[in-house]
Automatic annotation (TrEMBL):
NCBIfam families: dnaG. This is DNA primase. It comes from Lapidilactobacillus mulanensis. The keyword Iron does not apply. Its cofactor is Zn(2+). Keywords: DNA replication, DNA-binding, DNA-directed RNA polymerase, Magnesium, Metal-binding, Nucleotidyltransferase, Primosome, Transcription, Transferase, Zinc, Zinc-finger. It comes from the Bacteria. The lineage of its organism: Bacteria, Bacillati, Bacillota, Bacilli, Lactobacillales. Belongs to the DnaG primase family. Contains an N-terminal zinc-binding domain, a central core domain that contains the primase activity, and a C-terminal DnaB-binding domain. Monomer. Interacts with DnaB.
Amino acid sequence: MAGRIPAEFIDEVREKTNIVDVVSQYVQLKKQGKNLFGLCPFHEEKTPSFSVAEDKQIFNCFSCHRGGNVFKFLMEIEDISFPEAVLKVADFSDIQLPQQLSEQKVDVEHSQAQQLRQVYESVQQLYTHVLLKTKVGEPALDYLQKRDLDEAAINEFGLGFAPNETDLLLKFLQNRKVSRELLVRSGLFVQRQDGQLMDRFRNRVMFPILDQGGHVIAFSGRILVKSEKEPKYLNSPETEIFQKREVLYHFSQAKQTIRQTSTAYLFEGFMDVISAFRAGVQNGVASMGTSLTTQQLYLLSRITRKLIISYDGDEPGQNAIADALELVKNKPFEVGVVMLPDGQDPDEYIKAHGSEAFKKQLADHVLTPIAFQLQRLAAQYNFSIDSERLGYVQAALQQLVTIESTVEQDLYLRQIADQANVDLTALKTEFENASRQYQRKQRAEKRQTRLTQPTDPTPPPVFNVVLNRTEISERRLLNLAITDERLCQQLLSDESFTFSNPHIQNLFLQWQEYLKTPGEHQVAGFTDHLEPEMQKLLLEIEMSDIPDQISDDEINDYIQNIQAARIDSRMQQAQQQIRQAAAQGDEDAQTKWLNELLQLKRQLSQ
């Protein structure tokens, strides 16, 4: 645009938006004391260190030290510019744009990541147009309609078609003046030996892949005509905006329902997610055609603790469930498994039995991980043969020793006894022996790990630094001065007062300058005026655990502690000068600094 976003509009958007509402779109927050806490969306962690202060409208992670106001949060998590973040928050809060903004585009220096997103967005629109509006797209449209997908579903999921042409997309983007460098980086093309680019996706139904902010960042193309030479599904290669191990299909659309229901359904394929959505299950996601990853689980763990896995019922699907359960067993999830009858996948089951029957399966036929493993084991044995029954019992007990709940153990021991037709008392004795062996093995493995694991010579970074009395006093006093105008003026009027920490003194002076700007003066707005390092210090101070009620006597103690620390520092300097003067035989200088030291001692004793 010709001008910048007006400061008054930025203030209005920030003041009318609750940062908790925005952050909650990405992080599951829980009240803890004054603030809300959750797992940090910027790095993987097991213990929540990400905090949001609703009263101050700021966030901060005490581990990775990212922090700021609502605009900074969106800039960090979606990799967008400040103007883009302002407009996105305004849209979120339904705040009408000023006329000068609504009539013209925002003039921003687009990042490379943003340029890639724009390319992918325009390509998705092209593929959908080809599918719905052209003759060449009719075979793909017929295919989707035979799978019960109407135009509404196609538009909902942004489906499209890449025709069997080598340069349709290339010409489309070249006409839009997209640079060759960006075309190569996009991953949408393959480069021949002569350097010529040609479309990567040809004769494929296209499924756009979105990041957690809802931007198109990749595609997965399903081949329309089966071929032995080409894979059934072809994914975009990884780029700076797309790493398949970190992306879940349909996550951005499903996350609101996941939060509302506190449950996520993990399906195996794109069509399963789409069919489930059309059946009324809108909180379904799928991994990117590969095994489930820890990064994808962490993405889910930020917004829910309940995960239901419903993969295909065939043998590969069951193996994939077993792998997923192994990966998730040490993660903070309540996990369930739904096995659809007759080895069907969700898409097949819905077509055969309807939406209501499918939702009933998801609600009423959830297996625990152990129940799934036992059911899977049972299918591998012939219970009419004694040796097979004993083999099942031994294998089942090896599964059972891994769970800690004695109630669960008792429940499944009874089921195993009934199924294998063995005496329950004898089975419990056998289980106790197996349990002791398992525990001995675990202890031995831990000892071996301690003996063989190399010692890391680099100590881990220390985030929770212990502060001395003066440092605590300075931080609390600055925190109070920012919120209490009377105290702020008191400190300014005392010419002898200054913070001993130069960074805190700098923050105090910058706050005074910020107070001279028009409009409301809040910490959330102040952060926009600070350099990154100063912003980190401010957020650390503002998010610290400071008592709600602090008396005037305590405030005076803080001031005295700071002044005493400054005098003590000057005394140390005077003592150093005295020693230096004595070593040089300079009696005049020695006398001067002795007098200085005496005066400082008198000040300290007052």
